[in-house]
Amino acid sequence: MKYGIYDRIIESNKMEGKMAIVKSFKCVRPDRELVEQVASLPYDVYDRKEAKEAVAGKPYAFLNIDRPETAFDENFDMYSREAYIKARDLYAEFKDKGIYKKDDIESYYLYELTMNGRSQIGIVGLASVDDYLNDIIKKHENTREEKEIDRINHVDTVNAQTGPIFLAYKKNDALQKIISESILKEPIYDFISEDKIGHRVWKVEEVYNNRIAECFKAIPALYIADGHHRAASAVKVALKRRQQGNKGNEEYNYFLSVIFDERQLHILPYNRIILDFNKKSPEEIINLISKNFDIKESPILEEIKEKNQFGMLINDKFFILKAKDSVIKSVEKDPIKSLDVSILQDLVFEPIFGIKDPRTDERIKFAGGIRGVSYLKGEIESGKGKVAFLMHPTSMEELFAVADDNKLMPPKSTWFEPKLRSGIFIHEI
Fold this sequence. Notes:
By secondary structure, the protein is of the alpha+beta class. The chain has 15 helices and 21 strands.
């Protein structure tokens, strides 16, 4: 399925953004007693086998709807029309059973996630499709059409947005004050998920609705932190439906979002594993790397604490690589080339390992920082990988700089934790 016509619409609609639109909405949400059973990690953190295992013995888990192929055998075409109809039917069944109910009034919500004693609270509301088209909602990652199509078909068939987009805004004290006042009352949900993440949700009192909307109108831009494919899919569903006529106020013109103040967010490193030596010896690799990096062997395998530094695990040795001053100086004015992930790609992965496109090359795989250094060590010791590279996390300032410059980061540049749960908030379109 091709969406060239919609790409042309996007281009023709681009204009200078002036304010962000974030709406309250009538949320479809789970029964208080069942929310812990319903809430699921995002659909795309699982492969097919893992998704099947994750729903075993969990009939109320929203992942059953997000990944409907789990109801069929392993040979079933997970992208067939039948799969999406199964998702639609399961969702209808959940509502019929009272697992889900729709609120009577439009509201904003607050969603708090707590991980390792650190909390972040975002505002749950609807972001504008037009803001996305007009670059008021800014992106920092490419999307792949084949990944979009799955969610386009899912949203269009189920007639609902089921996974929130993770957005960020630059610090705003007015919104923070509203949040601080609203969390003084009892939450409507309060539970700890299997991965030890705390989840609390508040329904914001209606009296705050106009204040929140006005606060967002004073914010010049929102930024996609996580969920580029979900956002692009929601937009393309809206553009598809607009072909049948559009007044502008239809629910499909908005997409489900959780929006955080930048000061709340924490980016983890996104580490890399190379699966072969590209016909080179470890000694040769180290020698080639030393042309652009100062190399020092370290007795301790640990996370990288400084920008422009990298860890390299090769055989049973761990090295700290520091980009030479000449390298840093040559890229410091470019928001893309100055990223650590770009430096490593441009000076190591492509020239030494022959990896030109990390999005498609099967000789590189990625490991979110949540897995920790022990995972990387295990991959090398088991022989599954040959060289592991530990990264310093990309900063929010770097993310904003790239997005503000209307550029895109290399793939797998950011890993946000904790992950927003699907199934707690649903927006019907």
